[in-house]
Design brief:
Layout: H1 2-10, H2 13-18, H3 23-38, E1 40-47, H4 59-78, H5 91-105, H6 113-136, H7 143-147, H8 151-155, H9 159-165, H10 170-182, E2 186-194, E3 199-203, H11 213-253
Length: about 260
Amino acid sequence: MLGDWLRKKRGGGSAAKTGTVSVFDEAAERARRILDDLHTLEINTIQNDAMTARRMPPLPTAVAEIAEIYTSWMIKTLREAPNDDYNAKDRQSQFKRLRDGAANIMHSTALAPEEQVIARRIYRNSIALKTLCKEACTSDTAKPYFADMSLDDLYGTPDSVLEAAWRPALDDRAKVRKIWEVQTEFVLMQSMIQLDGDVVTRFSPLTADKSNAQVIEIHQQAIRTSTQMWAVMMEAVGSLAKALSVVIGGQQRNP
């Protein structure tokens, strides 16, 4: 692991002796998380009936959009309006309601199997996003954008302001990006590729028909492109490790 290797090269240091966390230790932990993410490559081919071809907006807006999309799906599926305690500005309140609502229906036989899958997705993701919003609200800078502003308010706020309001860890940002990308769409095909070469591919019954050969080809092309980029990223991590080795070696020779 890159993070473990960095700590060994560092040799502990004064931070380890005093019990505090050094900037170096934080960097090593982030490097460990990045490398952990690189252990597995996940490729999803998704059916989307309303593509907008835009990149993910700033995090506060993306989280608010997810809450709105999940709420719309729940209302459409359950044919009910939001409860009186629903607050369109408080993200924690939104995801708590979504979590509880999804928990009540995700095993219901009244739902089609694909709807049960989406309900379980909403349940899991609402738990994660509620936790993330709670963390964001501990920051005085970020709190207004997660607790006091509607989606329309966020649309009216410059992206630069929203981007600067809160900068979460890279893995949290990646988690939000995946949730925002998948939303409540059907995953037609998914491939998981492990660093040791193991590959697991799952597919929806919707792709089993021969008429969906084009979807399968698109998925195969996505795998080829992703594995090429994966190799580039692994090479970049290796180069980073070598560069850090030079820097750390110089620090140890000249304390």
